[in-house]
Amino acid sequence: MPYKIISSTCTACTACEPVCPNVAIREKNGTYIIDPKKCTECEGEDPQCVEVCPVDGCVVVDKSLPRYAA
Amino acid sequence: MSPKVIPIFVPQANQAPGCGAKGGAGKSGCGSSAGEHDLPPEVWAKVKDHPCYSEQAHHHFARMHVAVAPACNIQCNYCNRKYDCANESRPGVVSEKLTPELAAKKVLAVAAEIPQLSVVGIAGPGDALANPDKTFRTFNLIQKEAPDIKLCLSTNGLMLPDHVQAIADLNVDHVTITINMVDPEVGEQIYPWIYYNRKRWKGRDAARILGERQMEGLEMLTAKGILVKVNSVMIPGVNDRHLAEVNQAVKSRGAFLHNIMPLISDPAHGTHYGLTGQRGPTPQELKELQDSCEGGMNLMRHCRQCRADAVGLLGEDRGAEFGTDKIAAMDVAYDPEPRLAYREFVERERSDQDAARASELAALSGQAGDEKVLVAVTTKGGGRINQHFGHAGEFQIYELSNAGSKFVGHRKVENYCQGGWGEEDILEDVTAAIKDCAAVFTSKIGLCPRKDLATAGIEVVDGYAHEYIESSLIAWFRQRTESAQPAASVA
Ligand code: SF4
Ligand code: SF4
Questions:
Q1: Could you tell me if the CB of A39 is within 6 A of ligand 1?
Q2: What is the interface pTM, i.e. ipTM, of the complex?
Q3: Has residue B42 got a pLDDT over 80?
Q4: Would the CB of A24 count as within 6 Å of ligand 1?
Q5: Which of B75, B131, B199 has its CB closest to that of A54?
Q6: CA dist., res. B175 & res. B171, Å (int)
Q7: pLDDT of B88-98, one tens digit each?
Q8: Which of A5, A50, B19, B151 would you call most buried, defined as having the most Cβ atoms within 10 angstroms of its Cβ?
């Protein structure tokens, strides 16, 4: 399942954007969003966006979007 | 509570080009309140026009910060990035986030308006080196478009060793590192985590990595002759007893200045320390620690912990005049002439002021008595008594004695003069702010405040309007002591 950013707690600090190995994160209307099609959950290592985000619980697994859904 | 910066000189064993590294004889101190004759020439050349490093320069030159680097790679318990960052950007968040292109344009626009501009820095919020692309792109653009402007940056040091070469290549000649500990046991109480090598590290590991990287970066910078200032946040019960050790550690690695700042802690800031009731130091505790680290060296006391997007002379913020929208719409051209002319003018002014001070000092020498008095001065800059009392947003405080004059700090006040007449209660605050001063030197003052000050026992001196500050103060002090001891014989 891909990760998503809870926009109400995102401070738009920009930290997550450059650390994503899949360029899945970008700014949109003053907050940051993850493109679920690009997010691979950083398979094989810790999810980089979660590791770097200063706000607890701001980047979470998006359960509404099963990653392998057709 | 103004922070005090403790200058450091490099021990003889360490030949890194820092302050006082030359020879040994006579050069015991290196401080930023020191002038041309107290510093090795290569250091003086670097600090003389930098308002944050030299007390003399802060009279004449302006700096600006551009906030292009909001991301951070460590979490500090005293910081809530939503709100503020102790890494030179207190209080308040920056009001705008700039792209490198806009930032460079803003620098040009400000430079065109303010010939005093000599330094552009990248500090918080965030860490300049957690955003290396944005930081270096901004510096590149500025260097290309306005090569006469000096560059400086502030960092927590975590990524510093990776970027020392880039910093040197860009001729950045001042770097500030925030170092709060050298012992991971202390560090784990300050830093809950760091992000390093694609991984979040916690606890003692995090503090160990951070500490090692900071020391490594510091050594690499000083080995290249780049001046390094170390900022430390004093946190009572956490690192207060430890900072003397930090002082030793950074001193021995060639840091140029050590600036110990008080923790500013308020639940409203939403920081971990604010929310858990960790208190900041009292002014006495802060002073005790600073004194114990300083060891008889000169002090720099003019740091105002300015905002990350501040523009102007220290103590003055003209940032609002240079908002993002305005800049984007502006047409700006690079013209170094006014700044070069201004710098030449300052050179002349400075030697003139030095000469005036020296001659007053000579007249003063030999006078008896060990009296010390504080006086307040209103100035718009330029080292002159040139501000109307009612327009003063702060007073510069000098200590006068038979040794001459010494700048000891500044006190902010609300300027009482609004629309031409004074507001009584503000005037009371102003008087209270300088009540320990024997006199206030100003270029002009109204009748009413003059009376109030007299009642408070503060002498009003406007006879030196537009003259140099220091020579005037010394002259006044000499006449004052002479008239107090008419019979004193001059040896
Ligand atoms: S989990 Fe990894 S791939 Fe997915 S958005 Fe975060 S950093 Fe990018
Ligand atoms: S790191 Fe967290 S707070 Fe910062 S922009 Fe990304 S999601 Fe938002």
A1: yes
A2: 0.89
A3: no
A4: yes
A5: B75
A6: 11
A7: 333 334 445 67
A8: B19
- Contact between A21 and A52 under an 8 Å Cβ cutoff? The reply is no
Q: What is the largest CA-CA distance in chain B?
A: 77
Q: What is the mean pLDDT of chain B?
A: 76
A30 in contact with chain B, both atoms CB, cutoff 8 A = no
The CATH code of domain B368-484 reads 3.30.420.130
Residue whose CA is closest, atom 7 of ligand 1?
A20
Q: Compute, in angstroms, the gap from residue A16 CA to the centroid of ligand 2.
A: 6
* DSSP structure class, residue B25: T
Runs of H (alpha helix) within A1-70: 16-19, 48-52
Q: Which CATH class is domain A3-61?
A: alpha beta
Please give the backbone phi and psi of residue B103, each rounded to the nearest 5 degrees, phi first. Answer: -60, -45
- Asked whether A52 and B73 are in contact (CB, 8 A), the reply is yes
What are the extents of the domains in chain B? 41-328, 368-484
Q: B41-328: what CATH class?
A: alpha beta
Q: Whose CA is nearest to atom 7 of ligand 2?
A: A10
Q: What is the token pair recorded at B53? A: 């490093």
Question: For testing the chain A interface, which of B198, B201, B202 should be mutated: the one with the most A CBs within 10 Å?
Answer: B198
- Cα A11 to Cα A23: distance, rounded to the nearest angstrom: 19
What is B205-222 written as a DSSP string?
HHHHHHHHHHHHHHHHHH
Strands A3-5 and A59-61: antiparallel
What is the pTM assigned to this prediction?
A: 0.70
Distance between Cα B230 and ligand 2 center (Å): 28
Q: Identity (one letter) of the amino acid at B25?
A: A
